[in-house]
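Hi again,

Forgot to attach this to my earlier email, sorry! This is the prediction with glutamic acid bound. I've pasted everything inline since the attachment limit keeps bouncing my files.
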Amino acid sequence: MEVRVRFAPSPTGFLHVGGLRTALYNYLFARKHNGKMILRIEDTDRTRLVENAIDNLINSLKWAGIEYNEGPDKAGEYGPYIQSERLDIYKKYALELVEKGLAYYAFDTSDEIEEMRKNSSETFGTKYNREAMRNQLTLGEDETKKILASGHDFVIRLMVPFDHEVSFNDIIRGEVKVSTNDIDDQVLLKSDGFPTYHLANVVDDHLMKISHVIRGEEWLPSTPKHVLLYNYFGWEIPKFAHLPLLLNKDKSKLSKRQGSVAVEDFREKGYLKDAFINFIALLGWNPTGDREIYSLDELIEYFNLEKVNKGGAVFDVQKLDWVNQQYLKSVNFNEVAKEISLVSKEKFGKLYDSEFLNKVFNLFKERVTFVSEITSIADYMFSDINEFDKDYIQKKWLPGTEEIVIELIKVYENCNNFEHDELSSKTKEFALGLGKKLGDIIHPIRIMITGKSTGAGMFETMEVLGKTECLKRMSYFIQNKIYDV
Ligand code: GLU
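C-alpha cells for the complex follow:
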C-alpha cells in the first residue's frame, strides 16, 4: 500500500506551532516511507475564514522546508485541494447516505434547536432529538419533499444508532471505544450548502486515498463519527494517529496568552529554520532519548509513529533558545548574512560589507541566541562607542594607566600585521617589560576599544576592527580623559 498522508489546516489565520508539528510529523512519515504528502485546505467553516490565511500557511510551510507533493499550488490527481471548490462532491455523498436511510433532512431553525437543548429528553439527553424535531423522520417522505420543493432551508444529519460500540485503533493510543449513545446526529451538510468538517474530511480522505491520518489529539473525539461514516459508505478506514497536545510550562494547553504560538512570530524573532524544526520534531517524541540535536535526514530515518508519546508535550521556549544557540555555532554565514546585514542597516543606518559582517558573526556567534543580538552586545563593532561602562573603568583603570597606554599606542603603530598573533605577542612583551601581567593591560584596552567589560577575545576583536580604528579609539579615550569618571 502506498503511504499517503495529508496536512489539512483550516485557513483561520496564521500557522500555529501545533499545526507545524502535525505537518512535520506527516512530512517525516511520508519521507520515511517514500510516500506522498498532501496539503488540503479545509475552509468549510465560512464564519472563521481569514483573508490571506492560505498564503500565510503556504509561506510558513515553505519557510519550514515542509514540501508536499500535492496541494492548492501543486497539481495532483485528486484535486482540487481546497474544500470550498469541492462542494458538489460532498453534496453527492450526503445525498447518497440519505438515499440509504443513513442520514436525513432536518428543517429546524437555530432557535428551535436552542430551545430543544434546554429541555433535555430522557432518550436523547441534550443531543439532537430526532423523534421530536422537524425532520424527514417525523414529517414523512411526502411532507419532506414538499418542504424541499418550496426552497426551505435544510440540513442533512447523520443517523446515529443507539447501543452500538464504535471502536478503532490508534497507532499512538491503542484501541479506542465509544458508545454511539454518546454521539450526536451530527450535521453533515449545512444550510449554506457547505459540508461540515466531518463529512468533508472523511470524503476527502477517502477520495484522496489517504492511508494514515496523523493529526492533533483535539480531533480524537471526532474520530468515532468518522468511523461511522466510513462504515456507512462501506469504505476502508485509514490508520489513525492522534498526536499529543502541546502544553505551556505550567501544563495548561498551549495558548497565545502565555506567549507566541504563530510560526511566523518565531521566524520573525530570528530562530533558524533548522533549529526550529529540530525543536518542533521533539515535541512528543525523541528518537534516542539522549540527544537533542538531529539533522532532518536523521529525523526522517528514525521517525516512528509508534514511539510518539501519549502525554502532552511541553513547549519550552528556553529549550528552543538553547537549540537555536547550538545551531548558530555551526551555521554557515551565508544563511544568516541577509539578516545580519538588514538588522545592522536598520540599527546603524549603514550597509556593512559582507566580509566584515562574516568576521563579526564568527567572533560573537557563540555568545548569542539570535543573530540580531550581535548588534546590541557588540554595537561597538558597527559604530563609535555610545557609552562607556563607568564601573568597569573605576575598577580596572588604575592610576598611571594613561602613561602606559601612550606607550602602547606607539607599539601598535609599529605593528605591520595588525592580527591576533602579532597583537598578542607584542602586547605580552610590552606587559612583561613593565613587570605587569597581560590581564592588567587587557582591561584598559577593552575599555578603550569596546567600552564594555565583556566581549569576545580582545585581539580577535582588534583584528576585525582594524589598526586605524583601534588607534583612533585609544587616542580619543586618552585625549578626552574618559577615564575620569
Ligand atoms: N481542518 C482540521 C484542522 O484545522 C483538520 C483536522 C484533521 O486533520 O482531520 O486542524
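The chain has five domains: 4-71+201-247, 87-189, 256-328, 332-381, 390-479. The two ends are 77 Å apart (CA to CA).

That should be everything now.

G.
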